[in-house]
């Protein structure tokens, strides 16, 4: 029996999903961080590919996000980094993404392949950009790890905690005479 793989459907899925393998540390941390964002500010995740950070420097946004939240014409979009610094970029409706100015933002923030950015629309044509790095921890990463630790600690089985306390109490009991 002969099997033929259809890579076009796989490629199409990768293009629409705009994410990396779930095992990516930055992707997992970004998804956790995303749950902490206020619902009134639309947002999306974007995993950095070589074409975003080493050549080409064109960044496409999810088409559905653009249709729902961005202008129906080319224009400027401001990116605000975690320090409050603003970067002006050129939004191209035909590309559903950023062109001019994106290269400067990418280089200024030393973005590399597999870093994950969370774009949070805070005003019309203005995004707060949160960077979750694949190879090092940012303050956001540390906060996400701590949140996850707190949730895990809170969700521990209460009976197990009680058993541990009882076992410790037994250790320190004075012998009966």
Q: What do you see in this structure?
A:
The chain is of the alpha+beta class and 177 residues long. The protein has a domain at 18-136: At1g16640 B3 domain (Beta Barrel), CATH 2.40.330.10. Helices cover 40% and strands 21% of the residues. The chain has helices at 7-17, 25-34, 50-53, 63-69, 102-108, 139-155, 158-171; strands at 43-47, 59-60, 75-80, 86-92, 97-98, 116-123, 126-132. Strands 1-6-7-3-4-5-2 form a seven-stranded mixed β-sheet. Helix 2 (25-34) crosses helix 6 (139-155). It starts with 6 loop residues before the first helix and ends in a 6-residue tail after the last helix. The model is unreliable at 1-22 (pLDDT under 50). This is TF-B3 domain-containing protein. Residues 44-135 form the TF-B3 domain. Keywords: DNA-binding, Nucleus, Transcription, Transcription regulation. It is found in: Nucleus. It comes from Solanum verrucosum.
Could you provide a short overview of the structure?
One of its GO terms (cellular component) is nucleus. This protein has 177 residues and is an alpha+beta fold.
**Helix content percent band:** 25-40%
- Estimate the global geometry from the Cα principal axes: globular
Mean pLDDT: 76
CATH class of one domain: Mainly Beta
Number of strands: 7
CATH superfamily (homologous) name of one domain: DNA-binding pseudobarrel domain
Secondary structure tally, helices = 7
User: Reading side by side through the largest sheet, how are the strands ordered?
Assistant: 1-6-7-3-4-5-2
Assign the CATH topology of one domain. Answer: At1g16640 B3 domain
Secondary structure category: alpha+beta
What are the segments in which pLDDT stays under 50 over at least 5 consecutive residues? 1-22
Architecture per CATH nomenclature, i.e. the level-2 architecture of one domain: Beta Barrel
Using the CA coordinates, give the radius of gyration.
23 Å
Distance between the termini: 81 Å
Profile the largest sheet.
7 strands, mixed
- Tell me the β content: 15-25%
Instruction: Give the H and E element order.
Output: HHEHEHEEEHEEHH
Keywords: DNA-binding, Nucleus, Transcription, Transcription regulation
GO molecular function: DNA binding
Main location: nucleus
Protein name: TF-B3 domain-containing protein
């Amino acid at each position: 029996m002969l099997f033929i793989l259809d890579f076009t459907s796989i490629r199409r899925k990768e293009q629409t999903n705009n994410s990396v393998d779930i095992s990516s540390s930055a992707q997992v941390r970004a998804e956790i961080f995303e749950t902490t964002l206020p619902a009134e500010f639309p947002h999306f995740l974007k995993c950095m590919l070589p074409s975003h950070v080493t050549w080409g420097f064109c960044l496409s946004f999810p088409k559905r996000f653009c249709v729902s939240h961005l202008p129906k014409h080319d224009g400027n979009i401001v990116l605000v980094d975690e320090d409050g610094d603003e970067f002006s970029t050129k939004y191209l409706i035909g590309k559903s993404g950023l062109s001019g100015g994106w290269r400067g933002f990418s280089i200024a923030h030393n973005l590399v392949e597999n870093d994950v950015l969370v774009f949070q629309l805070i005003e019309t044509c203005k995004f707060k950009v949160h960077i979750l790095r694949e190879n090092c921890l940012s303050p956001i990463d540390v906060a996400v790890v701590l949140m996850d630790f707190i949730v895990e600690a809170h969700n521990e089985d209460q009976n197990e905690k009680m058993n541990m306390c009882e076992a410790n109490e037994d250790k320190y009991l004075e012998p009966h005479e």
